[in-house]
Amino acid sequence: MPFVFRISVVVVLFAVHAYSVFWTTMALVGERARWRWYAVYYAGYSVVMWGVVLLMIALDVLDEDWLEPLGLSIVALIFSAILRLRYRVPMAAALGAAMLGHFLIYTIFDFLTAAASYYSPVFDGKYLYVATSLLLPYMLTLLFSGGIVFVLNRSEFAQYFAYLFHGRMRTAVSLLVFFLLMNLKALLDRFFPGVTTDFSYGLFCCVLILFALFCIQFGAMYAASRDKVKAQEETIAQQQAHMALLEELQGEIRAFRHDFTNLLSGMALSAQEGDVEAIQEFMRRTSGYFDEKLGSEIRQMEGLSNIRIYPVRSLISTKLNLMRQRHIQVALEIMNPVTGVRMSTEDLLRCQGILLDNAIEAASKSEGKIRVVLLQDAGELYIAVANNYDEQPNLAALTKSGYTTKGKGHGTGLSSYRKMVSRCPDCMTRTYIKDDYLVQELRIPV
What mean pLDDT do residues 86-91 have? Predict the structure, then answer.
């Protein structure tokens, strides 16, 4: 066969195989496969695969069984980088999806290639042999990948797949399993060199794929149900704190009503005697009394009602209740409705919780004061949390991972906060000191 024909066939087959992997992996993370990023992935895929082939030829003394896993690992890293940078998929989930996608397609392709080579009749025409033993497996692999993508999309597999990467232990176990699956063929060749690619081998591969997908689906659904129960428990606790705030406000209103009745009686006597100065003094004292007793609570309730994201409203209600228990003076300013942002609700809750918890811990122990501002306009949500302090914090140290003033075992909050902010496109954060207050700002696009 002409050399140009052979190279052309390899290039086309690489493109088909790469698209099968790309298509399946995008379905795993629930994203749409776009040709532009497929071209980027295929370029990296081709460079790595050709490099592995040339290395096998040049250094035939090496054990080639371990060169393929190396190449697959590099390709998976390239793919995960594309998913992270262009599709904003978390790095762990992106790497896991890339490895699982390679496992699915390579397993199907190996079986189809072996079956085609075994069952293809011997023809005198070499071109026909190429079509049956090479082109046919690649085309069937692409067809099988389309079926997998259809099933994954219809079952909404992506939303369960993401739960496998919530938590460090869960992420580590998932990545280890996917890495072993991606390199299963090399492991089988290493530890079971006598395995033949007959019908039993193909049946084993199919059962393994089905079992792997079932385990992933079951494990992810179990993890999702646990997270859902935990979220419901947190929501109930936040609702209870919100109800406690309402009951406290109701008690303040009853007390004010009782005191206001007595004050009105005194004003009526002054009016009968024509004492205008006494009436003016009564009005001034009543206005100050109202602001002291009810004004701040009513303003806080009005501000909370402007938060249309209910989990955020419940979270802030919980933190306000905690501030009252610690006798911290709090000013809440939410002038405009807060309806939603580009950041996920889970990350928004965690970021808001970290800022408020840090402010509560850092507020002055004698006369603690905290100011919370949420301001949403057409372009962004501006969040600011300011607190006074007993000892001025070191702003340079605050940017370092693990910094804390609370002792050993703390200091992970700000590190997690920075990671979540970095995951959100165009988010900005700033920390500074102004008028003896430590101010933490967060700007999130809407």
Answer: 80
Q: Which helix (H) or strand (E) holds 152?
A: helix 136-154
CA distance 38 to 25: 11
Q: Which two tokens stand for residue 164?
A: 């496998």
Q: Model-level pTM?
A: 0.54
What one-character DSSP code corresponds to residue 120? P
312 vs 305: CA distance, rounded Å: 11
Question: Cβ atoms within 10 A of the Cβ of 229, count?
Answer: 10
Q: What is the full DSSP assignment across 313-328?
A: HHHHHHHHHHHHHTT-
Identify whether the C-beta of residue 342 lies closer than 8 Å to the C-beta of residue 425. yes
Contact call for residues 112 and 137 (beta carbons, < 8 A): yes
For residue 329, the cross-strand partners are: 369
140 Cβ neighbours under 8 A, 6+ residues apart:
112
In angstroms, the CA 414 to CA 402 distance is 8
**Computed over its alpha carbons, how large is the radius of gyration of the chain?**
32
Q: How far apart are CA 24 and CA 2, in angstroms?
A: 34
Helix, coil or strand: residue 387: strand
User: How are strands ordered across the β-sheet holding 380-387?
Assistant: 329-333, 369-376, 380-387, 437-445, 428-434
pLDDT given for residue 356 in this prediction: 92
Which tens digits make up the pLDDT trace of 288-309? Answer: 665 555 556 666 777 777 888 8
Q: What is the token pair recorded at 181?
A: 């699956």
DSSP states along 177-213: HHHHHHTHHHHHHHH-TT---SHHHHHHHHHHHHHHH
Q: Could you tell me if 340 and 309 are in contact, meaning their C-beta atoms sit under 8 angstroms apart?
A: yes
Q: CB of 269 within 8 A of CB of 277?
A: no
- Mean pLDDT score of the chain: 76
2-30 exposure pattern, b = at least 16 Cβ within 10 A, e = fewer: eeeeeeebeeebbbbbbbbbbbbbbbbbb
CA-nearest of 37, 156, 29 to 89 is: 29
